[in-house]
Design a protein that fits this description.
The chain is α/β, with parallel strands linked by helices and 485 residues long. The protein is built from 14 helices and 15 strands. The chain is 35% helix and 20% strand. It has a nine-stranded mixed sheet with strand order 14-13-12-11-7-10-9-8-15, with helices on both faces. A six-stranded parallel sheet has the order 3-2-1-4-5-6, sandwiched between helices. The structure holds 6-O-phosphono-beta-D-glucopyranose.
Length: 485
């Protein structure tokens, strides 16, 4: 199945921090892929902006390098690479000083009809100063868009300050806060499954759902990013944003329309309905060495660090739909596999006519984000053969790659999100109040951990995390799914 590509309007995308890691790994390769399928019209420009003094040819050379590394070889046809590089330009801009802003203004004025978007791929301390310059130098028009990405604050107070700073210069409808999980195909599919099928909605509540598990497990550690990660930890790095988004999309009420604010209103309501977390609803872990790969403490270079590289949570949503259904969240580094999934576990049938039903795990809908994006419905059937009425559980499996065919490849999250910025569609971006509400929920528990002064529980690198995370679900009679790719 080949997906339909609808071209966006011609645009100028200015990337601040264009020589940085995110630009190299994600932004430039994603723009290339969209250009390769003719979604970006000619006349569009990708304008790098950074402090380094460089000319256009030098930046083009830099922009070419990540393509070989991060774009599939079959797409790298020489004429496409040339076309892409022809659209690339550069202006040296001093984000915190005066240099380069007039030159950037002149460059953008060459194409006044292009959609203008500014991607701030820089440290959050620079969001305010850059937004201020864009507005005072008259570079940002009322139709321009500004794109920012986590960390969006370190806690509620800093997130509020950041939002206030951005809103001094840009309206909320111009601010695109990226959570790249929302750009993942299967995350969007969660909405499609829930709101485009009549099948699930009647069962999507605490009468029928026993519990929900959301797992985002990573096999990589923090080596290389230790300095950032150690100030953050799994709660700030993953739960406050990515897992919270998955929780919201799973639990939200159907919006009245598929419109950015209608969707985001419903998500905010979920966050606000979350019961405050108790310490006993959380398990923190930190990986220790297992084999030659080193421990968390070695990776961050601080033998006394109490930052968690794993967290498991039991959350309760206090509303009519979900009262009584626990939502378990867990995420961690150096776990046994890279696996992200949402598993909705249904209750057992109310009356048992087959003796083994109680021994089965029950129906479950598993939405796999990565790897092998797809959906599986676990159902009980009769074990084939003449040996009587024995039951087995089998997966009704829909792996998107095999169902949609080889051309149904999943685009990178950033491809979708950057095109949405140009289209002016904020549905898959976080609104300011949503980010603040998420901090409001996570802040007290982070504070409580610090006050308790306890160390995170050690777990072996390559395992499923601390054994206590199993006690968390086990005390409710539930069992985490295995972390296996
Ligand atoms: C980032 C976190 O936001 O998400 C990283 O800062 C994490 O620590 C990454 O590794 C995970 O993203 P993905 O898309 O690889 O699941």
């Amino acid at each position: 199945m080949v997906s339909t590509v609808i071209p966006v309007d011609p645009f100028d995308l200015v990337i601040f921090g264009a020589t940085g890691d995110l630009s190299r790994r994600k932004i430039l390769p994603s723009l290339f892929r969209r250009m390769a399928v003719h979604q970006t019209p000619s006349g569009s420009r990708i304008i790098g902006a950074a402090r380094s003094k460089m000319n256009r040819a030098e930046f083009r050379k830099l922009a070419r390098e990540p393509l070989a590394e991060f774009v599939e070889a079959k797409l790298l046809k020489p004429e496409l690479v040339e076309e892409f590089l022809n659209a690339v330009d550069y202006v040296a801009v001093d984000a915190a000083g005066d240099g380069g802003w007039a030159a950037l203004a002149r460059k953008l004025d060459e194409k006044p009809g292009n959609v203008r978007a500014f991607y701030l791929s820089v440290a959050p301390e620079l969001f305010g100063p850059i937004a201020g310059r864009l507005s005072s130098a008259g570079i940002a028009t009322p139709a321009s868009r500004i794109v920012v990405e986590k960390p969006l604050g370190h806690d509620l107070a800093s997130a509020r300050a950041l939002n206030a700073e951005l809103r001094k210069h840009f309206g909320e409808a111009q601010i695109y806060r990226i959570d790249h999980y929302l750009g993942k195909e299967t995350v969007q599919n969660l909405m499609a499954i829930r709101f485009a099928n009549a099948l699930f909605e009647p069962l999507w509540n605490s009468h029928y759902v026993e519990h929900v598990q959301i797992t985002v497990a990573e096999s990589i550690g923090v080596a290389g990013r230790g300095a950032y990660y150690d100030k953050s930890g799994a709660m700030r790095d993953m739960v406050q944003n990515h897992l919270m988004q998955l929780l919201c999309l799973t639990a939200m009420e159907p919006p009245s329309k598929f419109d950015p604010d209608a969707v985001r209103d419903e998500k905010v309501k979920v966050i606000r309905a979350l019961d405050p977390l108790k310490l006993s609803d959380t398990v923190r872990g930190q990986y220790r060495a297992n084999g030659k790969d080193g421990s968390y403490l070695e990776h961050v270079g601080d033998p006394a660090s109490r930052t968690e590289s794993f967290v498991a949570i039991r959350a309760h949503i206090a509303n009519w739909r979900w009262s009584g259904t626990p939502f378990y969240l867990r995420t961690g580094k150096k776990l046994s596999a890279r696996l992200s999934e949402i598993c909705v576990v249904f209750k057992h049938p109310p009356h048992t006519i087959f003796p083994q039903v109680d021994a089965l795990r029950g129906n479950a809908l598993i939405i796999r984000l990565q790897p092998n994006e797809g959906i599986t419905l676990r159902v009980a059937i009769k074990d084939p053969g003449p040996g009587g009425m024995r039951l087995v559980e089998v997966p009704l499996d829909m792996t998107f790659a095999s169902t949609l065919g080889p051309d149904g490849e999943m685009p990178e999250a950033y491809e979708r999100l950057i095109m949405d910025v140009i289209r002016g569609n904020q549905t898959l971006f976080m609104r300011g109040d949503e980010v603040e509400a998420a901090w409001e929920w996570t802040d007290p528990i982070i504070r409580a951990w610090t006050e308790a002064g306890s160390r995170p529980l050690p777990y072996d690198a390559g395992s499923a995390g601390p054994i206590d995370s199993y006690k968390l679900t086990g005390s409710d009679g539930h069992l985490w799914r295995e972390i296996a790719a």
